[in-house]
Amino acid sequence: MILHETLPCNTARRQEMLNITSEVNQILLSKLNNYSGILLVSSPHTTAGITVNEAADPSVCADMNEKLREIVPVDRNFTHMEGNSDAHIKTAMIGTSVQLPVVNGKLVLGTWQGIFFCEYDGPRRRKFNITFLGDKD
Amino acid sequence: MILHETLPCNTARRQEMLNITSEVNQILLSKLNNYSGILLVSSPHTTAGITVNEAADPSVCADMNEKLREIVPVDRNFTHMEGNSDAHIKTAMIGTSVQLPVVNGKLVLGTWQGIFFCEYDGPRRRKFNITFLGDKD
Amino acid sequence: MILHETLPCNTARRQEMLNITSEVNQILLSKLNNYSGILLVSSPHTTAGITVNEAADPSVCADMNEKLREIVPVDRNFTHMEGNSDAHIKTAMIGTSVQLPVVNGKLVLGTWQGIFFCEYDGPRRRKFNITFLGDKD
Predict the structure, then answer these.
(1) pLDDT digits (tens, 9 = 90+) for A67-117
(2) Domains observed in chain B
(3) Separation between Cα atoms, residue A67 and residue B92, nearest integer Å
(4) Residue C99 with chain B: CB contacts under 8 Å
């Protein structure tokens, strides 16, 4: 069983982490009942990534964005003329996809984990891919 | 063929890389003889990740931990009240999962590669997931 | 359907990002017509990673390499006697593999995305693995 879906995701700030866990769970609920396998959530963008981290306290995302801005500031003398090299570098450091186990139609996430779309050059109209590979139990 | 297992993994220090390659190989030996596919090793935690790196000389892990502590120190003025934002950020930078090819029941690892559970907020009782998707050759 | 191939890839500098998208597409064209699933591109090395980022303007890779050299310089007092700890750390930060959806024999890549072999301790004779798992539509 293979499932591939693309979902929209609009960002409101230059750098932002959007919790997309419920959108991903919606797909599982409506289409992957009783299926087990591996779920790939990927970003087709070069200045926006995907990560799994704490979804309970939003200050974790705030701290992460603050620290990333400090490690890779916007205003460096990069050669890329578009002026968003920092966003490309942040994307490479965080990664453009995550893989999660699916057991019996349910995403295997830890208690505090959520899936985040990580915008580094917004605000923009974005999208992300959900790809599932697996079988019925 | 889908296999999903959860294994315990206890850490002894605040920041530590545990070589879990033999635990992963044990599962392959006992349950995935002659199978080929993709193996996902994932952490259900938000302050501990998974990576693949050199398993021969332990000083590589020591250098990596030292450098990560320097890039993301513990004592910054983070807003997350729990005081472990550095651990969340290190986890996002390293990633919470790795994927490896399995060919004929054997993990495709390079000569020097090993799989590591990366603790950034220990010591704690932890666990990690092993998910295999594939078929008999 | 499982496919596993290993391809050579030689690097010319100590730190370098090689665009390997066409080599990957070649495999898809010749062997995965009409197949859909997940493609894993992985590095068997501990001082070279794999990432997905902008393939249009080479200055993005130049900026990324420059910034990574700044964050993890070569000449630190690392304990690993081989003297290439910086390369191990860069590899862990970037990651050793990427996963991409394949739909109907085609790699799902964004407009600006390409797949890169990231050398951090070259020049060397290197290789990378392509593993596909999926089925006919």
Answers:
(1) 999 999 997 689 888 899 999 999 999 999 999 999 999 999 999 999 999
(2) 2-136 (2.60.120.460)
(3) 12
(4) 99
